[in-house]
Amino acid sequence: MARERDLPGWLAAVHPRYAVPHRAELLLGGIVVAVVIVSDVRGAIGFSSFAILVYYTIANASAFTLDGPQRRWLRPLSLLGGIGCLVLALTLPAVSILTCLAILAVGVTIRTMHRS
Questions:
Q1: Are 82 and 61 in contact (CB under 8 A)?
Q2: Domain boundaries, the chain
Q3: What does DSSP assign to residue 70?
Q4: Are 89 and 50 in contact (CB under 8 A)?
Q5: CB-based contact 50:59 (threshold 8 Å)
Q6: Is the distance from CB of 44 to CB of 36 less than 8 angstroms?
Q7: What is the mean pLDDT of residues 78-98?
Q8: 3-state class of 90 per DSSP?
Q9: What is the pLDDT of residue 5?
Q10: What distance in Å separates the CA atoms of residue 47 and residue 45, rounded to the nearest whole number?
Q11: Cα 35 from chain centroid (whole Å)
Q12: pTM confidence score
């Protein structure tokens, strides 16, 4: 994402020996530590679970749109997977859902403004 300028460019630095985005990993590790220190871990787990399920819902929707040789599974399976992810996501605590939706909305807004 940093290479595409969706995040600050300095996060795109790749470690010369280990070939990993070391600055991004350190920043993310710091954010995770801060979240664990200042919040209830159960809330962080709920938030993370909701975000992952939204990601998988998008992946299933993308798989549903594939045609021909690009598609590995039948469309009904992608549809079932997407619905399953949404159902699971909606069973999480409301605070986790609302917090994640708010952060996603901020991210989408910033990206839209950045791309305009």
A1: yes
A2: 1-38, 39-115
A3: G
A4: yes
A5: no
A6: yes
A7: 95
A8: helix
A9: 79
A10: 5
A11: 16
A12: 0.76
Residue 47 near residue 100, CB atoms below 8 Å: yes
Assigned token pair, 60:
């299933």
The whole-number pLDDT of residue 10 equals: 93
Burial level of 50, CB count in 10 A (0-12/13-18/19+)?
buried
HSE toward the beta carbon, residue 25, CA cutoff 13 A: 8
Instruction: For helices 41-65 and 75-90, give the axis angle rounded to 10 degrees.
Output: 160
Whole-number CA gyration radius for the chain? 17
Distance in angstroms (rounded) separating the CA atoms of residues 90 and 45: 14
SS3 40: coil
Q: What is the DSSP letter of 7?
A: S
Q: Which of 35-44, 57-66, 80-89, 90-99 has the lowest mean pLDDT?
A: 35-44
Q: 116 exposed, middle or buried (CB, 10 Å; 0-12, 13-18, 19+)?
A: exposed
Task: Judge whether 22 and 29 are in contact, CB under 8 Å.
Answer: no
Contact indicator for 63, 73 with CB cutoff of 8 Å: yes
| Least confidently predicted of 42-46, 55-59, 68-72, 90-94 | 68-72
